[in-house]
Each structure stands twice: as C-alpha cells, then as structure tokens.
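Now produce a polypeptide, keeping tokens residue-aligned:
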Amino acid sequence: MLFVPIELRLRYLAAAALAVLLLVNGSHSARASAPTGGPPAIRVLQQTHRITYGQEIRVTLQAESDAAEITAITARYRPRGPGRISVYAYPAFTPGRSVTASFVIKTGDATYFPPGTDFDIHFELADSAGNVRETAPQPVEYLDPRYKWKHVTRGALTAVYYNVADDQAGRLLDAAAARLPELARMTGAPDGANFKAVLYRTVSEATSSFPRVSETATDRQFFAGFAQPEYGLLVLGSPDTGSVLHELTHLLMDAAVTSPLAAPVPAWLNEGLAVWAEGAGIESLNSRIRSEASSGRLLRVRSMGTIPGTGPGLSLFYPQAGAFVGYLHGRFGPDGLAAVLRRINDGRRVHDAAQDAWGVSLDDVENEWRQSLGAGPLPTPSPTPRPTATPAGAAAAPQATPAPPDDTPPPPAPGAT
C-alpha cells in the first residue's frame, strides 16, 4: 500500500474541492447566459403584433436555438402609466429548435384599454440545454389600424392624430403646452409627468373608443372626450385647444390627488376646474347661466357632487361648475385652488378643506357668488325641533331631520367629461 503523507492528502482534497466548485459555477454561468463574446445560443428572429381593434392585440415571436430544443417561453407585458403593473402570459408553441409562439392581450369590454395605450413587451425563453434568453422590451402602441396616425411632441405633451393638417396639430399642441405650467400650478400637480392626446376627427368616429359610461350617454354622444389618468392620456372626438386643455386638467388633477387617504374630488370642482381651464373666461361662462340665476334655477354646490345623468342637467352643470370655479380662481387665485386639492389629498372633505385653506366657509363663498349674479341666497336650514314630552303609554310622533346633501361622490367613472 502506497503511503501518502497527510499534508499531501489534504492538498489533494482541497484541489478536488476547488475543481468541483469551479465546475458548478461554470455550469450555472452557462445556463444563465451565452458564453462571453460568442453569439447567444437562443436567437430571436422576429417579434410582430396584429391589432384587432376593440378586441385584442396578438403578439407573435419567432426564435431558434443552436444548442437544444426551446422548451419554455414566458411573456410579460405592462401598459405604461402611473402605477401600472406587469402581467404574465404563457404563449402557445410547439417545442423545437425553431419555434413560433404567440399570445393575446385582450383590449375590449371588461379588459378595456383606451386608444394610444403603450405596452412594453418582454419574452423569456429557455432550451433543454439550460440556455436562457430574455429579450429587451419592445413597445406596442394600441391604435385603430384603419387610420394613418401621426405623432408630434411639444415638451411633456404628445399629440397622436390622423386626417388633421400638421400645422393645425402643431398650433393646437403649442397652445396647450404653453398653458401647461399654469394648469399644473392651479392643480398642484408634480413636475415630470408626460401626457398623450389621441385626437379623432369627429365625435362619432371616437365614440366606439370611449369607455362605456351608459347606453344613453353613448347613443346621444353626450361626451366629446375622456381623460384616462391611469395611462397618462386623453382621447378626444374633435381636435380643438379648449378640449385638450379640459382633459389635460383632469390628468393633472389626478396626478395631484394620489393619496390613499384622499377623499373623492366632487364633480363640481373636478369638472369646474377643467371647464375653467378651457379659457372661455368668466364673462362668457356667467352669460351662459345668468338666466338660470335670475330665475332661481341654479344648482346648489352641495348637490353637484356627481355629474347628472340627463341632458338637461348636464347642460347647466358644466357651465355652472366652470363659472363657480372661475369665481374661486378670481377670489383666491390658482394657489388657493391648489391648496384645497392638497387638503383633499390629505383626506379632508371639500368643505373642510376650503374652510382650512381660505378661512371662510364654502357656503359663504357660494352666497357671495350667487349675489354677484343677482341670484337669491342659499336657503337657511330650518332649526331642528326639540323633542316634546310624550304622555305615558302614547307612541312618540316620528321626528325626521333631512340630512344635508352629501358633496362627496362615489368613485367616478373613468375620466368622463
């Protein structure tokens, strides 16, 4: 038997352990990525997509592996926008050295995505030899392929349009971009956000792309546009500056009020800010509601927490909300409006927020505004009657005190204006 000194045996054991360690680490590295400097074992030949507008986006990938059969493919897609998350999909394919895999992003009905939504799409592929390939994100823009869309950008705002003269689109975008700092100040929105405006030629062409608020609203085309804050974009049925500014204000307001503690912004303030932002001016807005003011038909602000569901209500709601916010803008300035939204973002209800920001109650300010239009003051609430003694054995007469209308709406439908 050959005698080996213990020192040499320890050296042999250490060398063997090091060799095993290097082998294991080298094998893991080979599975994770291609050899340094060489071509990847798995090659992506082509990635394409086909849009069936209003229904789906079908994404297809072609790839091949030199080393072994491709046995696993995972897709990951994420719509761009504040707080959007990635979604995993498992494309259908037949394993092999050369594969074609596809999956579908549903875009209609319960899985509605607005036109202009940008998706970032990744694939991860693996073969039976342990090679893995992850693709760089590829963008897909969801637009109706029937139209030839163009893009133009001014600062933080991009317009996507068709059948509109380039110089007209440029002027519209210049005017909107010039007002953007003022609107950001009025809403208190943070810096750094980018927005997209998708412009249809007519409301009738755009209606099929709007989210479904109600059959009546859709059939009668009550709405000319929608803001989609979760995707940072707006959709319009006509390319005019006022409408872009209106919807852009909704996007800015949504960027300003983000706290989970935030109370819902009442519709009169939300829509009123957007109407005021259109730039018609206080005199123009007042002239549209002066007859209602003189005849006592003005809505009470406390009753304007939600948008009316009928045509006659809508025809008064919007100009009155805009005229009242215009009065607030003149009385307290853009910073005063932003101060109220900051307090709403902290969880305060609008009447408490206004009292704290301005040092005067919203009801008192509303009465001032009504007086400026020649309207009567708000009705004074009747005092609650004191309970009277009830004879023994007699049933007490029911006492009811009407609760004041709640100015805090339920969560609104997405961006309807």
Notes: The first strand starts at residue 42 and ends at 52. The chain has a mean pLDDT of 83. Residues 210 and 379 are 40 Å apart (CA to CA).
